[in-house]
Amino acid sequence: MFRNKTVLVTGSTSGIGRAIAEGFAVQNANVILNGIESIEEVNTILDEMSRKTSGEVVYECVNMASPDAVELMMKQSIERFGSVDILINNACVQHVSPVESFPVEKWDLILSLGLSSAFHTIRHALPSMRQKGWGRIINIASAHGLVASAQKAAYVAAKHGVVGLTKVVALETATENITCNAICPGWVLTPLVQKQIEAKAEKMGVSLSQAQHDLLQEKQPSMNFVKPEDLAAFTLFLSGDAASQITGSAMTMDGGWVSQ
């Protein structure tokens, strides 16, 4: 389905991003991975993913908080493959703290990784998409792109910004066979969320299983984590022809989180 298409997935060496990248690799797309892992970890991922595809799988070690580094990655990717046909913006980090004590450097980092990096990848990808007359942009936002939680000012601000950016790009490309959408997951058991569970267990003096239960009970009515592979399947659908008239949407996969 995606043979001869090139997909770039930011933050794709673990969790949601890796599941999405693997989903496209299985569909024989050219896949550009991004992350900051060690060369040993990356080589293992490249070997595993390359065995699943007839397309190319390459890795870009890029600090997504640096506009210059993002620009270089995009230029090199387009020079190598001719275009980035499908762009998945997934990179982000988290920090939990009250607003008045929120570290300024953490605010700047989260906004750079979670919002500004998406702006920079999009602005560099659009010219080649327009030239080919086809493109898909999918921003991995969050339920926190639609509702808020206490002590997550930077993450909530970044993800709300991603949803707004998605709508603007969709309007600007509406007649060009280019779509831009946001997926808003609830709790997904990624390394990022696992750290929150461990911190909650330590703070409350409870077991990891109890902390996990409490985390889900607080926000996610289904009491089940979203699976990374389900988010990958959703992303593949939005990248296909059947979704050509879905654009500017912020769609949830959150076990009922934002319905409350």
Low-confidence stretches: none
Shape: globular
CATH topology-level name of the largest domain: Rossmann fold
Structurally, the number of domains stands at 2
Number of helices: 8
Question: Whole-Å distance between the termini?
Answer: 37 Å
> Which CATH class of the largest domain?
Alpha Beta
Query: Which structural category do the helix and sheet elements fall into?
Result: alpha/beta
Number of strands: 7
Spatial arrangement of strands, main beta sheet: 3-2-1-4-5-6-7
For the biggest sheet, the summary is: 7 strands, parallel
The proportion of residues in beta strands is 5-15%
Rg, rounded, reads 18 Å
User: Based on the structure given, which CATH architecture of the largest domain is correct?
Assistant: 3-Layer(aba) Sandwich
Task: Give the integer mean of the pLDDT values.
Answer: 96
The percent range for helix content is 40-55%
CATH superfamily of the largest domain: NAD(P)-binding Rossmann-like Domain
